Hints:
GO terms for molecular function: cell adhesion molecule binding. One of its GO terms (biological process) is homotypic cell-cell adhesion. This protein is an alpha+beta fold. Helix content is about 20%, strand content about 25%. It has helices spanning about 1-15, 235-275, 285-305, 310-315; strands at about 20, 25-30, 35-40, 45, 55-60, 70-75, 80, 90-95, 105, 115-125, 125-140, 145-150, 160-165, 170-175, 195-200, 210-215, 220-225. Strand 12 (about 145-150) and strand 13 form a beta hairpin. The chain is elongated, with a radius of gyration of 61 Å.
Amino acid sequence: MALLLRLVLLCGVADFTSSLSITTPDQMIEKAKGETAYLPCKFTLSPEDQGPLDIEWLLSPADNQKVDQVIILYSGDKIYDDYYQDLKGRVHFTSSDLKSGDASINVTNLRLSDIGTYQCKVKKAPGVGNKKIQLTVLVKPSGIRCYVDGSEEIGNDFKLKCEPKEGSLPLQYEWQKLSNSQKLPTLWLPDMKSPVISVKNASTEYSGTYSCTVTNRVGSDQCQLRLNVVPPSNRAGTIAGAIVGILLALVLIGLIVFCCRKKRREEKYEKEVHHDIREDVPPPKSRASTARSYIGSNHSSLGSMSPSNMEGYAKTQYNQVPSEDFERTPQSPTLPPAKVAAPNLSRMGAVPVMIPAQSKDGSIV
Length: 365
């Protein structure tokens, strides 16, 4: 019995004189992306703890494949915070006097990669203690977009949609009507907590301004939309106008193509004509110049006539002169042909001779 009492007393003295202990309990902390997370770690020392004070924070990333990383260290009255590149410059001790019993840290500008389990270790020989804190980084809802999916016409079915650009799950939605009435239509009540409201057989009473608020554990965001239910549009007129526009466009295109082709044909014709003309070929003589040349040559012949060659010349008929240069006087077939006087050869230096005419049977008259 005395032995048992002695053991109890020894245990009580041991608990009372226990060494270093961390008073901060294990906990879970949720913070939004971009914010600052405060990770507490407070400790107490006992008179027996006489060794140098060492404080160490480690991170066990959410990816279990990665090993624990030292993110900040206090040893020999110096702070070392460049062990972990991903948190370099973003992790700091909150107390300027760590010996006072506060080893808490701040992690600023939180990122999704900061998610994990953080462990605080305090050592002052012979005392040693440690605590763990689970940090979760969430993304607040942002970039909320409200819009109408469908045609806002009387009698139509369409949808009101509320979509956040980003936000950590779970997300909560809440619709409100901001104009005319603060209440949503009764048929919409089942959807007022969802991202989509299905509208059936729309009427003008649904017109107004609506808001959608999206919330999660770390924040919220809101968007608004204006719903204006109008009478159905004249679809037949719209279709007819579109058809007419298309036909006019086709006609215009056809005219452009026709003009281009016509211009190309004209240019091609001009090139061919220019190629066929030869500069070394003289132009053709006119009929009048031909006749004058013929008469001039006859006159020259008459000027050089002598009595010896007059007989041959007399046999030459005047009808050999081109018909296009002289107009003949029509003669009656019953009258004998008149004697034609020879040209005045005295002017040409020749003896005048009368040239007998010939009748139709060839006899000389």
